[in-house]
Specification:
The protein is α/β, with parallel strands linked by helices. It contains eight helices and nine strands. Its main location: membrane.
Length: 253
């Protein structure tokens, strides 16, 4: 009897732009990342972390990848279509995903798209589903905001699949961010999960052996976390907080 070998992540190996796509005049295709029409992103490791300033397209890219993977662009898992996400929330993932092609090895529908801004509606849905099925659920909403985040990561991210996390640090203290990295390390060593993360946190950027990519108006490029604007900015502050703030808060004359 031949023993079946289970493929290891990354499952999603590439994301690229369809060569036949022509609607590049409006958002999100007007973003510098996509406007040339030759966008391609290779996932080379189990954990890929994307950094960059606000407005360059990190969240939009993650939304597009999430929809490409079969998730809702407002957050959730495959087949989960929330009814109580804010209809006012900007959701460009579906538009972008229609122009993207994914290279999988193998294709998997398992995983989750985590968005901090919709966490409570997702948590409410999961808690309610557990109660209706008379199961002992995670009861995410009984925790504080940050503790609920961590409970969610502990419960979901140890499974097999592709996990897309958009700014998971938003409700986490620095100490809790390190706990998140412990969860990532456990999942990574388990060899079942692929992570694609967008963050502003220098702590998360420093996760060992991650593929760290800097997104700017020039596109995506590999970077060492010590060279990111986020790390340099915080290093400057920590070296002399008083002088740093005096300089930054000084009114221009």
């Amino acid at each position: 009897m031949t023993r079946r070998i289970r493929a290891r992540p990354p499952y999603l190996r590439t994301v690229s732009m369809k060569s036949t796509w022509s609607e590049f005049g409006s958002y999100p295709f007007s973003l510098p990342l996509f406007k040339e029409g030759d966008f391609r992103l290779n996932f080379e490791r189990q954990v890929t972390i994307i950094v960059g300033e606000n407005g360059v397209g990190k969240s939009t890219l993650l939304e597009g990848i999430a929809v490409l993977a079969g998730f809702d662009d407002a957050g959730g898992g495959n087949g989960y279509r929330p009814v109580d996400h804010s209809i006012a929330m900007e959701r460009s993932g579906g538009i972008l995903a229609a122009s993207l092609v994914g290279g999988w090895l193998p294709k998997t529908a398992a995983g989750w798209f985590f968005k901090a801004e919709t966490f409570f509606s997702v948590a409410r849905y999961l808690d309610q589903a557990a109660r209706e099925s008379h199961e002992i659920g995670p009861d995410f909403l009984s925790y504080s905001h940050g503790e609920g985040f961590l409970r969610f990561f502990q419960e979901r991210c140890r499974r097999r699949g592709v996990f897309i996390l958009d700014e998971p640090e938003s409700a986490l203290s620095p100490r809790r961010q390190v706990e998140l990295l412990r969860i990532l390390r456990e999942a990574e060593l388990g060899g079942e999960a692929q992570f694609i993360i967008a963050t502003h946190s220098p702590i998360i950027m420093a996760y060992p052996n991650a593929q760290l990519l800097h997104m700017s108006n020039k596109g995506l490029s590999e970077i060492d976390y010590r060279s990111t604007d986020h790390f340099l900015f915080m290093s400057e502050f920590l070296s002399d907080p008083e002088s740093f703030l005096n300089e930054k808060l000084r009114k221009e004359t």
